[in-house]
């Protein structure tokens, strides 16, 4: 059973961990916190069945959608190529040979294969790093690029074989 978002009506809402006292109190009455994977809205929904299931250990608010497409990183030492390996509406994982420090601010151009022009992320921050990859959180981008990113993520979520979910 999929949970529809209270705002955008996409069938891509995910049960998330409680974030505070209000979430814990509402849970006593079977109102659980959900996060839409498309529009990022957080809302509560009555669900006895979900409340009785064991809760996952994963504290992430967004599913990482496995993907693979080119990107260009700017703001480190000039433009550098990268590959997007997982994606959400809030951030992505990048494979890159360019060293980036945790906390560094960067700009991105995402080049998904289905898009005619790049999706531009004006400001992003490096949240995690490994020798060959970094985790990036998106901070700001133009409304049109935000809509295009949401549409692309929604298309990944609604693929017939959602084996790309991680």
Overall body shape? elongated
Strand content: 35-45%
- The CATH architecture assignment of the largest domain turns out to be Beta Barrel
User: What share of the residues lie within helices?
Assistant: 10-25%
Report the CATH C-level class of the largest domain.
Mainly Beta
Question: Rg from C-alpha positions?
Answer: 17 Å
**By CATH's scheme, which homologous superfamily of the largest domain applies?**
predicted glycosyltransferase like domains
Structural class: alpha+beta
In total, how many beta strands? 9
Number of helices: 3
Write the layout of secondary structure elements.
Blueprint: E1 13-15, H1 21-28, E2 31-36, E3 42-46, H2 48-52, E4 65-74, E5 80-87, E6 91-95, E7 105-111, E8 119-130, E9 133-140, H3 143-157
Antiparallel strand pairs: 1-2, 2-3, 4-5, 4-7, 5-6, 6-9, 7-8, 8-9
């Amino acid at each position: 059973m999929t949970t529809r978002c209270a705002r955008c009506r996409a069938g891509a809402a995910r049960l998330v961990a409680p974030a505070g006292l209000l979430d814990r109190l509402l849970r006593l009455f079977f109102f659980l916190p959900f996060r839409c994977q498309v529009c990022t809205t957080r809302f509560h929904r009555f669900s006895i069945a979900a409340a009785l299931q064991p809760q996952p250990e994963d504290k992430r608010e967004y599913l990482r959608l496995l993907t693979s497409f080119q990107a260009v990183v700017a703001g480190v030492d000039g433009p550098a190529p990268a590959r997007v390996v997982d994606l959400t509406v809030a951030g992505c994982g990048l494979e890159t040979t360019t060293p980036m420090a945790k906390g560094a601010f960067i700009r991105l151009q995402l080049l998904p294969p289905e898009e005619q022009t790049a999706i531009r992320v004006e400001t992003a921050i490096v949240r995690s790093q490994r020798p060959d990859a970094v985790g990036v959180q998106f901070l700001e981008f133009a409304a049109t690029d935000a809509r295009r990113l949401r549409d692309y993520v929604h298309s990944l979520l609604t693929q017939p074989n959602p084996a790309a979910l991680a």
